[in-house]
Known about the structure:
The protein is α/β, with parallel strands linked by helices. It has 2 domains: 3-177 and 222-244, NAD(P)-binding Rossmann-like Domain (Rossmann fold, 3-Layer(aba) Sandwich); 179-219 and 248-281 and 297-313, UDP-galactose 4-epimerase, domain 1 (Alpha-Beta Complex), CATH 3.90.25.10. Helix content is 40%, strand content 18%. The chain is built from 10 helices and 12 strands. It has helices at 12-23, 54-61, 81-84, 88-109, 146-164, 191-201, 223-235, 252-263, 286-290, 299-320, and strands at residues 3-7, 27-32, 45-48, 70-73, 113-119, 168-174, 176-178, 207-211, 217-222, 242-244, 249-251, 268-272. The strands form 3 sheets. A 7-stranded parallel β-sheet has the order 3-2-1-4-5-6-10, with helices on both faces. Strands 7-9-11 form a 3-stranded mixed β-sheet. The protein has a two-stranded parallel sheet with strand order 8-12. Nicotinamide-adenine-dinucleotide binds at residues 8, 10-14, 32-34, 50-52, 74-78, 94, 98, 117, 119, 174, 176-177, 183, 190.
Amino acid sequence: MKKALVCGAGGFIGGHLVKKLKAEGYWVRGVDIKEHEFCESAADEFIVLDLRKEEDCEKALALTEGNFDDVYQLAADMGGMGFIHTAECEIMRNSALVNINMCHHAANAGVGRYFFSSSACVYRDMTKDEPELAEEDAYPAMPDNEYGWEKLYAERMAMTYARHSNMKARIARFQNCYGPEGTWTGGREKAPAAMCRKIAAIEDGGTIEVWGDGTAMRAYTLVEDMVDGIYTLMQSDCEEPLNIGRREYVSVDELVQVVAEVAGKTVNIKHIDGPVGVKARNFENNKIHDLGWESKYSLKEGIARTYPWVKAQLEAQQAAE
Ligand code: NAD
């Protein structure tokens, strides 16, 4: 039986990835600095470890017999735009330490394949209607935020170790990912979860606040599609970073309208000052499509799976107060 280690298994995408790997027949160890907030981990073994520490990386990788075939590194000090623009030092220090130590110890331990979860934030800002950026257009580098710079460094770290060891590196640049069992409140939530929460909280015809002028363009990928993409990439021979995302671009205001339709509510928008991030995103996804992956869920289908979950979380929280 193949063995996989998922770092960040107590988080959103890592939690879903563990379920995917179990379904594919792997023995899975999950590690994270905390337990999963919203569900019991599906991993065969779950260990709470701080992967900033070298000794904890060694514990994560230690098996009584043999090595892990695959390591999926998704642990990061992570959040939406509100977090990315305020916690710059935490991101630059904590995520870099995790990536430096995990990659080094995975290569030393004789791991077969090492997956690193990078981000579309490695790309520069774009204007609306600009032609698509391909993976190589990440250079010359000018990410919009420190989170993107840290990801670029960690990508290069994984590729460097792959050149100098027997460990193969697989690197995905995720576009915005959303779905059930992700952070939905508290300051680290991303736009789709935040919109679901705000709309669940108002009456029909009510008003929600939206950061910025609502015109920033984004693409959103449901987590089930994302973990299929991760798995597809990991099985491939692709040694370069590769974009994973659905090619369905909407403005922030259009995202609000999709959530409002799913909720069956008329929603008014009040634009307020707040961190927005880049003006637009537009990426090529040809390379992941060439590997046979296609996104299956439209934004509306994905929100139809996400909104009821966020609404139930909000109602449970209100009932407990
Ligand atoms: P998440 O915050 O839900 O998961 C990250 C997990 O890493 C958390 O459970 C956290 O506790 C854990 N972690 C943080 N520091 C740790 C440490 N020192 N030791 C052990 N575990 C630690 O985020 P997510 O949305 O699941 O993202 C997973 C990965 O994908 C991250 O690397 C993120 O940067 C990347 N990514 C996510 C998105 C997205 O839209 N969600 C987009 C681009 C890239």
